[in-house]
Fold this protein.
Amino acid sequence: MSDRFLADALVLAHLLFIVFVLFGGVLVLHWPRLALAHLPAVCWGALIELTGGYCPLTPLENRWRQAAGEAGYHGSFIEHYLLPIIYPAELTRGMQLAMGAVVIGVNLAIYGWLVRRHRR
């Protein structure tokens, strides 16, 4: 398998993980046992955003890109791929904290609704 293919596949997996972190609670409404995977994913996503850390997938992607003869990039996955689409400016600490708060808020709302529904 080529290093470029691996890097591109990792970007797709990374994006799907972010979507799962944000909206996986909706799937939990239909498959409650999925919460066993979703809650740790939410905790990881919020931790990375709130602490300003980098996901370990980003350096791995950069290594594969460099092995394929491409240029790696500096910063996080969000800075490199998502912010140019969503925001015109570079990632700031405030924006990162806001994204972490959105992850927590969206999932608190979904799980709160799920708990209320289960109690009825």
